[in-house]
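Our platform keeps sequence and structure together, in a single record for each protein. Nothing more is needed to write down the fold, since each code stands for a local backbone conformation. An entry from our holdings is shown next, in its original layout:
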Amino acid sequence: CLALQDGHDCDVNLVLFVCWVGISGRGRLTRAALDAAEADIAPWRRSVTDPLRALRRRMASEADAADLYGALKAAELAAERVAQNRLEIKAPNRTEGSAGGRVADAVANLALYLGPGSAWASA
């Protein structure tokens, strides 16, 4: 997830969300549902989570700022939980399905999020 975040500008919370929706038996997301979920948390990510992450990363190399680094890390994780709670509200209701179908739904949701050029799109 962190490699997708750092190397491909993906939102870890959305990666986890799309996988959770599929694996928890909530089925496949539509483009409209994914776009709505993304739009719901994007302002929070831009104004809160991303700035906290940037500050925490800057403090990582400051030997005399370990306490501040820890506080920023805790604040960043708390901000991530807010985003996750907002996404949970957007989740469709559970449906019946086999375990194999749920895995396929999770993969399809991830491919939808990552886009048609991703390796997941052909899985």
Summary: The helical segments are 2-8, 12-23, 31-59, 66-90, 99-114. The chain has five helices and no strands.
